[in-house]
Structures
1.
Amino acid sequence: MKPRRGPIEDQTASGRAIEPSELSESPTDKGATKDLDRMREKVTAAAFRILAARPRSETQLRERLLAKPWVEPEAVDQCIARLKELGFVNDALFARNYASSRVGLKAVGRARVVRELAGKKVSRDTIEEAVGSVFNEAGEESLIDRAIQKRIRTHGRPSDRGSAKRMFDHLARLGFEYSLIVRKLQALKANIGDDDQ
């Protein structure tokens, strides 16, 4: 009858028995390579799950992946590089689509979209390029007109200084420029005066 395999009889200086697996594996072994491959596969699967939920910037995806306790930074770098090659991670496209979607859904100003994209950790240059492109197409003038018309439908025309201030604040929160808001509200006030006559 063979004796049961157990720890090697040799012991370390601390008196702990040495396991056979500790002797046979080294970082350059095939086992380590297989572990790295499995890690890359797990990281890639996790990245696809994250991106399937909603699009994300490269930095957001990297942070989400690195937040997992089992992930190695090297595997994340390799995964993101591969996803960029395949076109699944593209900050320029992400920023453009986000800006276009925000402007299409709600009349918001340039400053608000810039703030939101910065919060999504997109680089400043990429943000400027995407926002510039979207706002050249949509035109901030037409967007503020849409926002004013919606505000008038829900709250009526500003009839006094207080209601004009509330409309101004609303338009500023939407991210429109101060000078554009002032000009539009002055035009609205002039139109109200014309309507009264």
Note: The chain has ten helices and two strands.
2.
Amino acid sequence: MKGSTVIIYFSNKGSLIGKSLSSFSENADSRIAFLLYRSTLAKIKRSGLPVIFSDESNQSGNSLGWKLANSFQQAYHEGFENVIAVGDDTPGLQTSHLLEAARSLESGQMVLGPSEDGGLYLLGLRKAHFNAVEVASILDHGRNQTAAFENFIQDYKFLAPKILSLEFDIDNAWSVHTWRAKTRFSSFCDIILSKEIGALLHRPFLPHCVGFISSFDFSLKAKVSRGPPSAVLFLY
């Protein structure tokens, strides 16, 4: 599985960067965004799968859909057959989602992780499923992306997609509060995440933390590795 499947960790200004997540200050916003990013990164690490980091420094395309489609294309170019893309704005994403997606891709299925707002928090595509124009179009224009990808699968007569659990994504301060209020946390890490964010919401005007948090350096010392699958970064 490790040799043919890779995770794209996708983040840019359309995800958490620059969004008002606290209703207090840019400092509190960046801290919450950092906590969410770090939490997802830890779950990716536990999967044991290789990861390619896709951010503003290496993305190409004029829209969110094309940036992600081009990231998929690059992963296939590097030798992977199966690609799982996730963002940094869905705290309900678990390592189990990633492993389930990897198994489903190996069995020939597309994988869709639907968000409550009609978008996707996870998209898993085999190389045989991939059509850059279709993927970009659905991501940029599809209101119900799960249904749009299901129709795409039917048109091309692929196996029915694997649909993961419905999860809640973070867009603004209201969604942060809603996520903390409505979620029954089963993961210890998510309990800690909720408590850390809660502490920030009650103490939003603390001095700026060290530079890489206040400036929100999404790279976290992680760069995209080029070359064959064996050369792509593992997070150990």
Note: The mean pLDDT is 81.
3.
Amino acid sequence: MTLNEGAPQAVQLAASRTELGNSAAAPFMLGGGEAGRLLRAIDWSRHPLGLREDWPVILQTSLSLVLSSPQPMFVVWGPDFHALYNDAYAQICSHKHPVSLGQPMSEIWQDVWQQILPLFEQVYAGASIHMDDLELKLQRNGFVEDAHFWLSYTPLKDATGKVLGLFCICAETTEQVMLKRKLDREQAALQDSEQFLQSVLAASPDCIKVLDPNGTLTYITQGGRLVMEVPADTKVEGSFWPDFWEDAARDQAIEAVAKARAGLGSRFQSYANTFAGNRRYWDVRVTPMPNAQGTTERILAVSRDVTYLKKMEDEREHLMHELSHRLKNAFAMVQSLISQTFRQALTVQQGREILQGRVRALANAQDILTRSNTEQMDIAEVVEAALLPHRTGEGRFVINGPVAAINGRQGLGLSLALHELATNATKYGALTGPDGTVSIHWTVGANHTLSFFWRESGGPVVAVPNRRGFGSVLIERIVASYFDGSATLDFLPEGVSFQLTGIIAPLDAAPATDPY
């Protein structure tokens, strides 16, 4: 009996489909709302991208992230730029959805393709692109309309560094841009009419203030009092406006007043508390209001609460960092699995079947990590996902243990170990007969010490294998290194026994050396 041989592909796929339906062969395509359902319904055997089970891991991982995100995202793959997107991006496509799903970008956006193609070509040449305002004239909803977007394009590469596709996070900002242009036009008109100035200032929800040339507040709109949460009985006129800010932001406000006094406009962004003590992020424009002689008589200061946009930007940066981090971990592990599996496989077909099972176990664990939107996953969820293809509904597994979080690298390693153990039990061990069972339990002690056990019973008499393959090395050495602990795999006559002890690491950190 050896642990480096996976169950035949057809058996594994049949077991998966019994539990999950036709989606089990592609766990990276689970969920995703309407877009996910439509992608799963496509006959990929007739599509240029081919069977989804044969897609590269980087494409599978990227699509999993796309489908699980509420942010508009898409993956473009192959030389013809076939697009796979989520529900949020479908709204941008408008009437072009759902027929656009899986189609080349040149067909989806025919009207602006010559403008988009050079960007794609740059990314396929290896460059990453970020644009705060891409303006396009799109044919949507039966007419041509101006549309604005911010976007980030990242190349997707294979192990050799060749770019095979791109990953995009984007958002349509047309409404915000149109609103900004409208406000700019209105602010320009304010200089021509004091009456118009008063009406616009009274109606605007922004915090609009008028200062004297020295920076003293002389007027604030009612909307400004509301957004700044100024109490009704509090008089703010006569205050030195830069005192509303703290530290470096106060210096920026003083500098803005000085520039306006000299006839120059300026802009800055910073945090400041409202009068109720609530922290807000403001986009501030300071504009001189000259008299007929060209001397700055008053200063217009418009503060817009952009806390929500700031939060979105921070989340986008975090998402890109997290995507890069997870892809690097996944690529390193897959690269090692490929190398070790085919090094010890007796035939190419055997290696292919074993590798497919291991990559599928990795994909299941990665799916848990993606759904959790954190760098951690629960041990119980990892166990359930790893055993899902091997369950028959007959209560063959007895699972018990407390809630415990492990980092992403530990979760991927544990998922691989459970896949190897379950595959071996199905072929040679307790799961070959009707009476065999597997007991899985774990405990967490002081200082985050984990003790994890796998014990088989009720199966055929176990014989010690003549040689140990990569599966044994994976279980005893590699996985143990992720937990900074030790693992033992015993072939007892009554059944295989596995014990892992180590430290649960709440933060995902790579080991100093690669155990592969």
Note: The two ends are 23 Å apart (CA to CA).
4.
Amino acid sequence: MLTALRAACRSFVHAWRGLIHTVVHQRNMRVHLVAATLVGFVGSGIPLGLAEKVTLIFCVLLVLFAEILNSALEALVDLATEQLHDRARVTKDTAAAGVLVLALGTVVVFAALVVHNWPVVVASQERIWRQLALGLPVAACVAGLVWPRRPSLAVDLLLFALATLLLIIQFRDTASTVFSAMTFGVVVIAADAARVRRREPSPPAGRDARTPKPPLPPP
């Protein structure tokens, strides 16, 4: 039993390390995290039905999942060939296209939910303004944590503390504890990504998601 628990813990650590690696080295993943923060505040501000909540959360998680798979595929292609190759480019482009389709689909689903619940949206204007007042600063904190720069530890701690404080304030009048918890999870991921980035060497200027990434550290 103890051995199985240790194996499960090691598997979680490896999976978490892969998630943070994607956030640190994939620009689009950082954008998705900021968008997930905003979606979390919308979901926790507008009273939605169970099916609508599940649909919206599933769409967000599916986009993040696709971006992680895209990052893994890019790393595999870079490992297989170190030279520019047309088929390697096609592989990366089509994988990125899959993420784009899912992201656009999520936007369409989100718009459909807002239109379908427009009477509820109109009746919840006060709460929506409150969500905007709290959600935009939290999204800015997440963007600051995942942004490819190297501030001091104090700045990262300040951003994390501010985002957590705003989430605690928002949680007192949330319409969905699930969306609030999801938003806090995004903040935790962003904070850990900032920690990992501070420990890594500075990347060469101009590098983006299309160039090879450094390998994961050994387990």
Note: Residues 205-213 have pLDDT under 50 and may be disordered.
